[in-house]
Amino acid sequence: MDLEESLKLPMETIDDLENMEILMNEEGTRQALLRKLSFHRSNRMEYFIRKCLQATFTDRLATVCSWSGVRESTKISDTQLIAFIQHMGRKFYPNLTANEYKQQVSVWFRCAMTRVKRTEGRSSTSHTVRNSHTFTE
Predict the structure, then answer these.
(1) Does pLDDT of 39 surpass 70?
(2) What value does the mean pLDDT take over residues 87-100?
(3) Mean pLDDT along residues 92-103
(4) Which of 40, 55, 69, 124 has its CA 20 to 30 A from that of 4?
(5) Domain segments of the chain as ranges
(6) Residue 9, by phi and psi: left (phi above 0), alpha (psi -120 to 50) or beta?
């Protein structure tokens, strides 16, 4: 198994995030992450950032994180992973400013609970529909 496959993405827990921060000190990890996230390149910078965040954080993990760590959430603004995604963004989108990046990332994390609720609602509805349907011959 190569390094790219061994990266546990998307991360599901704070422990996964902490482990990723340790791994980010290794050049091999950064190269593997670069290869993996480069596939999300888009015509629009917003889509690229969103896809990179979706590829690295589950919505569940995102619900306990925020840019600045407000209300006992985990602060992600100073993590190596977030800085790495920003660096990639600037490489692909030279006009990307720090403020634009912060805004995009903040909104994505802030909306995480909505995505979780929507996903749970969708899965419980489809499960109910499948189980309540009866066939008659």
Answers:
(1) yes
(2) 97
(3) 97
(4) 69
(5) 9-125
(6) beta
Q: Residue 73 carries which DSSP code?
A: P
Phi-psi region of 71 (alpha: psi -120 to 50; beta: other; left: phi over 0): left
Can you point out the beta strands (E) in the chain? Answer: 65-66, 74-75
Give the residue carrying structure tokens 């670069």: 34
Burial 30-43 (b: 16+ CB within 10 A, else e): bebbeebbeebbee
**pTM to 2 decimals?**
0.85
How far is residue 69 from each of residues 9, 63, 100, measured CA to CA in Å? 22, 11, 19
pLDDT-based confidence at residue 79 (cuts at 50, 70, 90): very high
- The residue whose two tokens read 């006009």 is 95
Asked if omega into 10 is within 30° of 0 (cis), the reply is yes
Which residues pair with residue 57 across a beta bridge?
Answer: 11
CB proximity list for 61: less than 8 A, separation 6 or greater: 10, 11, 12, 13, 14, 16, 17
